[in-house]
Design a protein that fits this description.
The complex is a heterodimer of chains A (327) and B (326). Chain A has helices at 6-20, 44-48, 60-72, 84-87, 91-98, 101-104, 134-138, 151-161, 212-224, 243-253, 268-280, 302-308, 312-322; strands at residues 2-5, 24-28, 53-55, 76-83, 114-119, 144-146, 168-173, 180-183, 196-199, 204-208, 230-234, 237-239, 256-263, 289-293. Chain A is an alpha/beta fold and 327 residues long. Chain A has 2 domains: 2-183, Rossmann fold, CATH 3.40.50; 196-323, Rossmann fold (3-Layer(aba) Sandwich), CATH 3.40.50.920. Classes of the chains: A alpha/beta (327), B alpha/beta (326).
């Protein structure tokens, strides 16, 4: 195990993939000479050259579509879109092509494409750089959606994505890039579709993913000091959801709080909540609760942005309320 | 066209155009009796474009087409039966009945659809060409789209990227003058598609899309340049659809005399006259051709009629490669 940042862990997966498979290449806005908007691909241009680390024009729909075409043509493209807000410009290619081509062609085509992008708030980048729209992607059959919440997963899930025969979207929370964690950079790919219990507890299950995972773990620390033990479930894959791990946790704790940085209405949290209702209703001691981002475009001012997002204190408060130990 | 035409080649071109024409006339008839549903966009009037351009391609080349692609599919050599079965929604269809008229696929012929988002095929074509360039595969990707697509961002983006990276894409604009019901001059300030391409760094040429030999010659020139590593080329074929946009379209936006004027330049009639004039098409050839085409269309319909439906249990099959319920 090595200590490295989430950013370095993602880069180590990219480097391993580029070194190990000549079909793999990386393309996106400023991935080459600039070194990646979030410095994930820093150094890779020098190491692998401009054929395999390609700077693209600001043409999200076309370079994502070109990734689809290159995948159809026998390559293993990794496309980086700078942020999830920008990825909306490529949704046509994602929803109408990447997700459909296999089924619509009667199984003749497959699209082994990996698309990575930064998601999430917390850096005062306001309403066009800060949203968490991965739940929208998770709505779409035909694609797989992963959201690593740890440095080790930033590496392992990216390697796993590159083994899938179908399109995989990797949502890297921008606030996590500088976060350090223990990474086994000799381990093989992770397992897509498998959630993880990050902390064991008996009083309630806090179900979360991505950038909210460290906040949920911090909330669990706060609660532990008060004698409340929260189990923290990291979804890791948003589609397909690991319903079995969610339900098993709820069966142990009998209470579920879903924490999701996306907006509440029509959210991934709503989907998780519905699955608990469908499959774990009789295990529950109380209603499933959701803590999501406030339903506003993300404001710029620090105090307002903080107030719009789930935070350790608000997660802990929600947990206390569920256990009727608030105040 | 004054150069003499090889008889086999000339008859081959004519037969393909006649096949597309009769196949689509039959499809329209079957639509009116409910055998074919959904949208059905007929290519009638534009046959010379698909047939002419396909002459410039080899089996190793890729084709990306639009939702008005029966002509391209047949000209690429896809079986009429598999195309008709697809329009019926049958399991024996080229896309197992999942796509219908707008989404024909045949990977064995490198026919990559059948794209019904206007402009949506262009980025995919750029990517196919990128893969070939990176893999050292000497192939051309032919990408069909209509005049409506030039209004899409994907057109400007894709031409730019293909030119920037010198990718082997042959952009084929089928300019039938109408984006559904909106005439080109009503949606573009610059109506010259070749000039638009040149602004993106893609050399282009316009050709009479009703003249199959002219289309073939221009497509061969363009494909040769692309194949020779000179980067992408655009060919604009000026053509006209004789039928409405789709079977739903009452065609209120085109003047009757405009349609009639274009019909005097029917590509099948024009080329028949050329072949007759050159003594290539004998008295009995056309009748024999019509008979053989009719038999092929009848066989396609019979195949579609008799073919099985995909079992409904297979509904979720091929959403992903792995057979899982996600």
């Amino acid at each position: 195990m090595k200590k490295m940042t989430y950013r370095e862990a993602a880069r180590s997966a990219l480097r391993q993939a580029l070194a190990g498979d000549p079909r793999v290449f990386l393309m996106g806005e400023d991935v080459g000479r600039y070194g990646g908007a979030f410095a994930v691909s820093h150094g890779l241009l020098a190491e692998f050259g401009p054929e395999r680390v390609r700077d693209t024009p600001l043409s999200e729909n076309t370079f994502v579509g070109a990734g689809i075409g290159a995948a159809l043509g026998g390559l293993r493209p990794i496309v980086e879109v700078m942020t999830v807000n920008f990825s909306l410009l490529s949704l046509d290619q994602v929803v109408n092509n990447a997700a459909t081509l296999r089924h619509m062609s009667g199984g003749q085509l497959s699209v082994p494409l990996v698309v990575r992008m930064a998601t999430g708030a917390g850096r005062q980048l306001a309403a066009q750089h800060s949203h968490s729209l991965e739940g929208w992607y998770a709505h779409v059959p035909g694609i797989t959606v992963v959201a690593p919440g740890t440095a080790d997963d930033a590496r392992a899930l990216l390697l796993a994505a590159l083994r899938e025969p179908d399109p995989v979207f990797v949502f890297e929370h921008a606030a996590l890039y500088p976060m350090e964690g223990e990474v086994d950079d000799t381990a093989g790919p992770g397992e897509i579709g498998r959630a993880a219990v990050r902390r064991v507890g008996t009083d309630l299950s806090v179900i979360t993913y991505g950038g909210s995972l460290p906040k949920a773990l911090a909330a669990a620390d706060l609660l532990a000091a008060e004698g409340i033990t929260a189990e923290v479930v990291d979804l890791r894959t948003l589609r397909p959801l690991d319903t079995a791990t969610i339900l098993a946790s709820v069966a142990r704790t009998h209470r579920a709080l879903v924490v999701d940085e996306g907006w509440r209405t029509g959210s991934l949290a709503a989907e998780v909540s519905a699955r608990i209702m469908e499959g774990g209703f009789y295990d529950l001691d109380g209603p499933v609760q959701r803590l999501c981002s406030a339903e506003v475009p993300m404001p710029y001012a620090r105090h307002m942005e903080d107030a719009a997002l789930p935070q350790p204190a608000t997660i802990a408060a929600a947990a206390r309320a569920m256990l009727r130990r608030d105040g | 066209m004054s150069a003499s035409i090889d008889r086999d080649h000339g008859l081959g071109l004519l037969r393909q155009m006649v096949l597309i024409r009769r196949f689509e006339e039959k499809a329209a008839e079957l639509y009116t009796v409910g055998k074919i549903r959904g949208f059905l966009h007929l290519y009638i009037g534009e046959e010379a474009v698909a047939v002419g351009t396909m002459q410039a391609l080899t089996p190793e080349d890729n084709v990306v087409a639009t939702y008005r692609e029966h002509g391209q599919a047949l000209a690429r050599g896809m079986e009429a039966g598999s195309v008709m079965a697809e329009m019926y929604g049958k399991a024996g269809g080229c896309s197992r009945g999942r796509g219908g008229s707008m989404h024909l696929f045949d990977v064995s012929r490198r026919f990559y659809g059948g794209h019904a988002i206007v402009g949506g095929g262009l980025p995919v074509a750029v990517g196919l060409a990128l893969a070939d360039a990176m893999r050292g595969r000497p192939a051309v990707t032919a990408c069909f789209f209509g005049d409506g697509a030039v209004a899409e961002g994907a057109f400007a983006e894709s031409l730019n990227l293909a030119a920037l990276w010198r990718l082997p894409v042959l952009f084929l604009c089928e300019n039938n003058l109408y984006a559904m019901g909106t005439a080109l001059e009503r949606h573009q300030a610059q109506t010259d598609v070749v000039r638009k391409a040149e602004a993106a760094g893609v050399p282009g040429e316009a050709v009479d899309g009703m003249d199959v030999l002219a289309v073939e010659a221009a497509a061969r020139r363009a494909a040769e340049a692309v194949r020779g590593g000179q980067g992408p080329r655009l060919l604009e074929a000026r053509t006209y659809r004789f039928r409405a946009h789709s079977m739903y379209d009452p065609d209120l936006y085109r003047a009757g005399d405009e349609i009639e004027a274009w019909k005097t330049r029917d590509p099948v009639v024009l080329f028949t006259a050329v072949l007759r004039g050159q003594g290539v098409l004998g008295e009995t050839d056309l009748a024999a051709m019509e008979t053989s085409v009719a038999a092929e269309v009848d066989a396609a319909v019979a195949e579609a009629e008799s073919g099985p439906w995909e079992p409904v249990e297979d509904l979720l099959k091929d959403v992903y490669t792995a057979p899982v319920d996600r």
